[in-house]
Specification:
165 residues; alpha/beta; Mannitol-specific EII, Chain A; six-stranded mixed sheet; 5 helices; 6 strands; 45% helix; PTS_SugarTrans_NitroReg; Transcriptional regulator
Length: 165
């Protein structure tokens, strides 16, 4: 199972305008609630608790807020591109304009970790970040993410090949 099993154009929010990190998390919690059937305050509280542990900003303008919820029926993966970058307490001090949310059932921690690894791997390529920042439609953004995940999987498969293969 990959994040693309839980991701499509309907998972994309283009040109969100939250203004700050707190408003962004609130907006993401509301979107995740609409998709999961779980209360937005519960999701927001879990996201805020995770951020208190340490910022989920990855650097280069990207953040990956994530959390686990007990009794969540299915994972929720969202992508938001912000109109204006917001401070996310990133180690590189770069404000964030690309945000992925991973909300996962607590019973499947391996799934959460695997999804985060896929997202991080897909976003290593600066060209993917440029393409996401320039995407015109939600369909375009979704295809960029799906292609980046697939490309990263292909790259890992090649990197895992025995020497001389």
């Amino acid at each position: 199972m990959t994040i693309t099993d839980h991701f499509s154009a309907s998972s994309v929010i283009l040109d969100a305008a939250p203004g700050n990190k707190a408003a962004l998390l609130d907006q993401l919690a509301a979107e995740a609630a609409a998709r999961s059937g779980r209360p937005a305050p519960e999701i927001l509280e879990a996201l805020q608790a995770r951020e208190k542990i340490g910022s989920t900003a990855l650097g280069r303008g990207v953040a990956l807020p994530h959390t686990e919820l007990a009794d969540l029926a299915a994972p929720v993966v969202l992508f938001a591109r912000l109109q204006r970058a917001v401070d996310f307490d990133a180690r590189d001090d770069e404000p964030v304009d690309l945000v992925f949310l991973a909300l996962w059932p607590a019973s499947n921690r391996k799934g959460l970790l695997a999804s985060m690894a896929e997202i991080c791997g897909a976003l290593r390529d600066p060209q993917s970040l440029r393409r996401l920042r320039g995407a015109k439609t939600a369909d375009d953004a979704a295809q960029i993410v799906i292609q980046a995940v697939a490309q990263d999987e292909d790259d890992r498969d090649c990197n895992d090949a025995p020497p001389g293969f």
